[in-house]
Design goal:
single chain, about 400 residues, alpha+beta, MetI-like fold, two-stranded antiparallel sheet, 11 helices, 8 strands
Length: about 400
């Protein structure tokens, strides 16, 4: 008895084939839309006599920037302007992430404190600053606080070396002298020694159960070794102390009020969200863990540092990453008070002068995308290390 032939399903009736055709059509439609947008943009640019390309980066910028972390003048190129703006953005973002993390963790832990007053103050901090728009907070710190400071002649001073006035915070500038390189080398050696000590202490604890005071030993190394070399080298560091000459100060380092206002607003606003993340992370740790640590006689600070926080970080880190990314992107609000970040000096002044909108905006978007992806990747690596490992 012969087997009847198997009927093959027509190709167009197969779900996988239909899905492939639909995806191909959608991809073709998207490519056609992008091509149409690019063609339309090129046509409009050509009609207005605007050339495309990145040759403008080598042209003279012709404007000054109030804060520069590298050498810059009005004769510098637009490429130099881009680097200056990028460094200013990285500076305020890095300072904001550091301050927001410290404040957020402190406030988040304080919210769970058994002290009634401390817990209520922490709750008031969170509910106040997270419910006021960030832009309003930036304007408050800049116009209501920093712009209300006295003029340079009536500056508030500390030890006749630190001055605070409407033009910013002026502090002494360090001037390295011959031999200071040995102190820097000692600092690098101390950091490497602390890393090696941490690895050794972890392996020793896993093998014998004995815990070394890594924090105290590490602090002593990082502070003591460079300080010892610094003194032994004859204190090879001088200070350029600012002094009032005319209507302004000369010498020292000036922290402009725009940076101070933006840093304060970003740090406090983001810290209010981080505090809630930390609180939820700590509360996610089973109470039995805390009770067990108390039962074996662990002090409260050791319980928090060794038992609660490591387990809470599994909940904290993913949400913390989002807040870091938000802070970096929110730094673009600096244009509201004139802080010379990437958006202000490159996507603002440079764009207005050159008219190269597509190139400048594309470069700006690429920078923020790259920074966000790098931060996200680093946090994902740390998150992977904090996950529980199944055995």
């Amino acid at each position: 008895m012969s087997t009847p032939p198997i009927e093959r399903t027509p190709l167009w009736r197969r779900p996988a084939f239909r899905a492939l055709i639909i995806q191909a059509l959608l991809l073709a439609g998207l490519a056609a839309l992008i091509a149409m947008m690019i063609g339309n943009a090129l046509t409009n640019l050509e009609a207005r006599g605007i050339t495309t390309g990145f040759d403008f980066l080598g042209e003279r910028a012709g404007f000054s920037i109030p804060q520069t972390l590298i050498d810059y003048s009005g004769d510098s190129s637009y490429a130099r302007t881009f680097v200056v703006g990028l460094l200013n953005t990285l500076l305020v973002s890095g300072l904001g992430i550091l301050a927001a993390t410290l404040i957020g963790f402190a406030v988040g832990i304080a919210r769970l404190s058994p002290n009634w007053l401390l817990a209520r103050l922490a709750a008031a901090f969170v509910e106040t600053f997270r419910n006021i728009p960030l832009l309003v907070q930036i304007l408050f710190w800049y116009f209501a606080v920093l712009q209300a400071l006295p003029s340079p002649r009536q500056s508030m001073s500390l030890l006749e070396a630190f001055f605070l006035n409407v033009r910013g915070l002026i502090v002494p500038a360090p001037v390295p002298e011959p031999g200071f390189g040995l102190t820097q080398l000692a600092l690098v050696v101390a950091i490497l020694a602390v890393v090696a000590l941490g690895i050794y202490a972890r392996r020793l604890q896993q093998r014998t159960g004995k815990a070394l005071p890594v924090y105290w030993l590490g602090s002593a190394l990082i502070i003591g070794l460079p300080l010892l070399v610094f003194v032994a080298s004859g204190i090879p560091l001088a200070w350029d102390v600012p002094s009032l000459k005319g209507f302004n100060f000369s010498g020292g380092i000036t922290v402009i009020p725009e940076l101070m206002a933006l840093w304060l607003a970003l740090s406090i606003y983001t810290a209010s969200f981080i505090a809630e993340i930390v609180r939820s992370g700590i509360q996610s740790v089973p109470k039995g863990q805390i009770e067990a640590s108390r039962a074996i006689g662990l002090p409260g600070n050791i319980t928090l540092r060794k038992v609660v926080i490591p387990q809470a970080m599994r909940v904290i880190v993913p949400q913390l990453t989002s807040q870091y990314l938000n802070l970096i992107k929110n730094s673009s609000l600096a244009t509201a008070i004139g802080y010379p970040d990437l958006v202000a000096v490159f996507a603002g002044t440079s764009l207005n002068q050159t008219g190269q909108a597509i190139e400048i905006i594309a470069m700006t978007m690429a920078v923020y995308l790259t920074i966000s992806l790098v931060v996200s990747a680093l946090m994902n690596v740390y998150n992977a290390r904090t996950l529980l490992k199944e055995r």
